[in-house]
Amino acid sequence: MANSTTEYTVRVQAEDFDVLAETEILTKGRKDVGAIVTFTGLCRDEGGTLEALELEHYPGMAEAQISKFAQQAVDRWPITGLTIIHRFGKIPPGENIVLVIATSPHRRAAFEAADFLMDFLKTQAPFWKKEHLKDASEGTWVEAKAADDADAARWIEEKAK
Amino acid sequence: MKIRYFAWLRERTGTSEETIELPENVKTTGELMSWLAARDEGYAFAFEQPETIRIAVDQEHVEEDHVLTGTEEVAFFPPMTGG
Fold first, then answer.
1. Distance (Å, rounded) from C-alpha A40 to C-alpha A70?
2. Using CA atoms in the order A41, A158, A124, A60, what is the torsion angle rounded to 10 degrees?
3. For residues B10 and A133, what is the distance between their CA atoms, to the nearest angstrom?
């Protein structure tokens, strides 16, 4: 079922993105899309204490890693379109950080592909978050969570079954 | 060989990238970490817990037993927190 020749878009950029415009690119003129799953990750306010999140990335490797997982997603699920955008730089609360859009003839594949990609963006793509608080001069690096690693690992276990 | 540092490794070493001449007795990524840690206090602080540090060789994830022959770029960074 999976069509590994499906094209995908991967962008790592400082600029914001437009979810509706990006979604339209994947659906315009097509009649084979039955499901669109869009996931947008936003910078959360943390109770009003956060000034901004600073996202650092490894240029080149970030795009390559995301593309590797995008290819795995189109190999694994019957995806008709895939767009992944990850921002870097200083992002204030309320603004977009990351976008994953997966389209498919059926909902399950679109949900699962988007979920899979977010798990790997969190744990395998070279991005690091630093929290700048309103009342602190020096920011602190966000520590990786074991729960995120466990989320990513379940896709490998499931595949091995 | 180019060495790159990201996030708190960059802050602790005070360097985002540098070019080094690999000593003859340094064969693996793990040995490179030990050699870098011995340079000064900042590097020692950056590499004080080498087991928590992630390594990429020519932009591919590797472990600390990776042999450095033919390597152009090594990067050290903390566990990733993107998304």
1. 16
2. -90
3. 21
3-class secondary structure, A7: coil
Q: Is the pTM for the entire model greater than 0.90?
A: yes
Q: How far apart are CA B39 and CA A86, in angstroms?
A: 35
**Most B CBs within 10 Å: which of A127, A130, A131, A151, as the mutation test of the B interface?**
A127
Q: In chain A, what residues touch B4 (CB-CB under 8 Å)?
A: 58
Q: Are the C-beta atoms of B55 and B62 separated by less than 8 Å?
A: yes
What value of ipTM does the predicted structure carry?
Answer: 0.94
Strand partners, A37: A102
Give me the tens of pLDDT residue by residue for chain B, a chain 83 residues long: 999 999 999 999 999 999 999 999 999 999 999 999 999 999 999 999 999 999 999 999 999 999 999 999 999 999 999 98
A85: closest chain B residue by CA: B83
CB distance A58–B77 less than 8 Å?
yes
Is-contact B57 B29, C-beta < 8 A?
yes
